[in-house]
Structure formats: structure tokens, C-alpha cells
Amino acid sequence: MKTVYVLGNGQLGRMLRQAGEPLGITVYPIGFDAKADTLPIAQSVITAEIELWPETALTSELVQHSNFVNRDIFPYLADRLTQKQLLDRLQLATAPWQLLKDENEWPHIFSSLGNLVIIKPRTGGYDGRKQWRLSKDKTTLLPNKCYGEYIVEKIINFSAEISLIGARGYDGCTVFYPLTHNLHQEGILRTSVAFPQPDQMQQAQAERMLSTIMHELKYIGVMAMECFVTPNGLIINELAPRVHNSGHWTQNGASISQFDLHLRAVLGLPLSQPVILAPSVMLNLIGVSINNDWLKQPLVHLHWYDKEVRPNRKVGHFNLTDSDSKRLTIALKELVTILPPEYSSSISWAIDKF
Questions:
Q1: How many angstroms separate the CA atoms of 17 and 243, rounded?
Q2: Cβ within 8 Å of residue 155, ≥6 positions away
Q3: Quick one: which of 61, 77, 129, 239 could link to 36 by a disulfide (CB 3.0–4.6 Å)?
Q4: How would residue 139 be classed by pLDDT, with cut points 50, 70 and 90?
Q5: Which domains does the chain show, CATH number per domain?
């Protein structure tokens, strides 16, 4: 079986490597500054854990690699301008938006998009970084360098945030997980909850949307689609052409994890429909040191990234899965007592889903 190289050596690359081991697939996450001439990549398959990377000697060589799966799709979807243009062309619902070209456009922007808008960089700005909410009286605070490099979106009044994780194979076959309910705080995903039986109308709409996108792009592998729930249906917020944080629950809550599924897809292996038998909760560990007391909890599956602990940095996550919702609720309440106080609200949010 071919070796898989993952461009990027963060936690997603690490989890792809772990998923490959039971299948006998050798997966090597590689940093952007690795020396290409020391890596036997000629007959290997290349994927990536991130859709945006710096230009280095390695990345310059890899973009010429014939087995770099989705090579041209990564930069296309990494740019919010071309991503939004794609959604509009496919007539898929997304927040009304426009490119922020110059300061003379502000009167028209507020007239068409409302009195409060969100400004996002065309590239980067994940986990809420480099994003602003601006009103009419605050536009002068925006640096001049943002013009031409940012888009402006209408702020959507939504009742919930959900995501769909799906995968497409070389033969056009698609499979999907149940919708995931997500809680973000300060732009960072805190908690995800998934159920074996999602809302059927929402699930069907989300699968139609993501299928349309993946087929149009001839995409291979796992893709995530984040959506807002509104009275008029789902509105696509953003796309991620890779395994995704909101799909981490699949490691312990599904018959096939998103990481396993991605490797199968990029290697042309069969994509069977994942089976989900019980509710699952994923809790991101952000800027906290490891605590061995977590391991005393029988339902806790700890995934620790072995990274330096810094404020607002994702350093690990918990997965909890159980068919008994009462037992799962008790386990979540126990976590409140051994985690910092700021986790209480996100755990309460998860408990309220049961």
C-alpha cells in the first residue's frame, strides 16, 4: 500500500498517522521546512492537514506532485473570496457578502448588509482570529491594508451552529456522518455533540449541499461544512477541505473515524457508510495542562497532542460516548469538578442537548 505524506505536522497530521496504523498504512506528517530531497515521495500520495501553507522549497515541489490529492482545491477554498463565489455560482445559501475594496464602499455596505457587519480576511483568520464586527462609527479603526484583502458578511441571526462531515471517493461515492451540533466561544470551537438520529430535514439538506460542492470540485477525501440554522433552512458559513475539529468525536463514536475515512478515500480504498450507535460529546482542551484525574473518568477518551500549553491553544480533546444518556450526563457533570471554571458553560450546553 502506498505511503501517505501529510503536509503539516500538527494534531490533525498526528491523528491521521494514528488512524493509518491499524490499516497498515504508513502516514508521515511533514513540516513545511522539511527537505524534499530526503523524502521518498515520488510514489507516495500527498494530502494536507491545512488548506493554507507558506511557500517553501518543500511546498513549491509538492505543488508539482502528480499524486497531491486536491492540490488545486486547497488554495481555492482557502480564499474566502473564491469560496464564496463558488457557493453563489452553485446557488447554495450563504451569508450575503462582498469583497471590501476601498473605504468609499462603506455606505453601500451598511445599506445592503445591515448596521453591523463581520469582516473576515480572505485567507487565514481561523478560530476567530483577525476578524472584526464593525458598525458605521468604527470603520476608521480598520487598517488600510485590509482593503482588497478582506470580505464583508451580513451577520446572520441563527439559532444553532452545526457541521456536516462527509467524504467522496474517486468513483464519486459519498458517505456522511450525522450532523454535529457545535458551540463556539470567542470564535473557538469548544464542544461538539452528535446523535445517531439527526434531524432528518436538516441532514438531507446538508448532504445535498455538501454533495453538490464535492462533486463540482471532483474532491477526494473528507470535507467539512459549517452551517448556521435559520428559520429558512441551513446557511453555509465555511468549508474546510480536510479532516475537521468538529469531527473528532468520530474517533470513539463511529465505526470509522473521519481520519480513517480520509485515508481510505485518498488511497482509493472502499468507503463504507460509518455506523453510529450512541450519542457522542467532544470537548476541546484549550490552554490547560494535562491532569491525570481526567483518566479516572470511565467514559473519557483523552486525546492529548503533546504541544506546549499556551492561552487559547488547542492542546487536546475529550471524547465521551454512551448509549445511556443519563450515564453520559453524569460523566459530563463529573468533568465540571476537574476542569477550570470556564468549561462549565460549554459542558452545561452539551448536557442540555440530551
A1: 13
A2: 95, 114, 116, 117, 118, 133
A3: 61
A4: confident
A5: 4-68 (3.40.50.20), 96-154 (3.30.1490.20), 160-351 (3.30.470.20)
